[in-house]
């Protein structure tokens, strides 16, 4: 009878344990482990790069502008046309400058005539002084007369010198007028392609020393470069001669090789006083063997190789995180078998087989 009571009391306990175990098993079947890719720590060829975007431009480009202001009367080229060095590009209205040359020539002629007249008067005054001096020496002329004749001779000498100076000014004005006239005809300073044409016949070309009015651009498209902007945090790792790979957005199937040729010594800033404020440096990357489809102004991205390690001990970048031990609540490194797929934190190191989670 006592055994029967014990059996009856134990049955509910067994049932509860079985039900709890079944429930827990059902819950565990609903929780799937997280798949984790692992990769071994190994020595690899590691390349450090800096990526920047910018525009394609010719390595050699000349802005063609007028040195004198006038209306454009003739354009000898079209955009995209090849021109040789010394080829005629533009003619400006030269009427005003031709008239200035003629006026300067007339002024020079008048100055020369005045100089000739002044020279004759000077010679006559010198002779008068010599004769008066002889009479004075023979006591036949007074001192006052001699002084008066001497003063007249000096005046004529000074007048002659003044006309010579005026003649020099007239010659300088003539040279300036002729130079201005010559500048109404513009020739190409180099062989290249007319990459941009800003003016048309009938428009005014503003000749100014303080503000350039570009009529056209002549570029040597055989040599191209990418002008990219690099953040101030990355510029310190970029050096002259660094190799680069350049991708032009308009030519997605073409990967170009390049080399850093110039790094700006001063920064340029944008978005001052806003959340978009940034400081960047311009870097020129010369393109090696540019393709014919390349055009100035195309957008490009350059991956500049700043450091290469041939045999570096490395891990996947996905395995690297910057956190403090306090943030992780980490435990010392050791063996921690994981069958649940849940996160475990360690101070350092890989598993016993030298593998780290890569994703």
Description:
By secondary structure, the protein is an alpha+beta fold. It has helices at 2-30, 95-137, 143-182, 232-235, 325-328, and strands spanning 38-40, 42-65, 70-75, 82-83, 88-92, 185-187, 192-197, 204-205, 214-231, 243-248, 255-263, 268-270, 278-288, 299-314, 355-357. Among the domains are: 51-59 and 220-311, Beta Barrel (Elongation Factor Tu (Ef-tu), domain 3), CATH 2.40.30; 94-183; 315-359, no CATH class. The strands form 3 sheets. Strands 2-9-13-11-10-14 form a 6-stranded antiparallel beta barrel. The chain has a 4-stranded antiparallel sheet with strand order 6-5-3-8, with no helix packed on it.
Describe how the helices and strands are arranged:
Blueprint lengths: L1 H29 L7 E3 L1 E24 L4 E6 L6 E2 L4 E5 L2 H43 L5 H40 L2 E3 L4 E6 L6 E2 L8 E18 H4 L7 E6 L6 E9 L4 E3 L7 E11 L10 E16 L10 H4 L26 E3 L2
Helix pairs in contact: 2-3
CATH class of the domain at 51-59 and 220-311: Mainly Beta
Look at the structure and give the mean pLDDT: 83
How many angstroms separate the termini? 64 Å
Low-confidence stretches: 1-20
CATH topology of the domain at 51-59 and 220-311: Elongation Factor Tu (Ef-tu), domain 3
Strand order of the largest sheet: 2-9-13-11-10-14
The number of distinct β-strands equals 15
The sequence of SSEs as H and E is HEEEEEHHEEEEHEEEEEHE
Query: What is the tally of helical segments?
Result: 5
- Looking at CATH, the homologous superfamily of the domain at 51-59 and 220-311 is Efflux pump adaptor protein, beta barrel domain
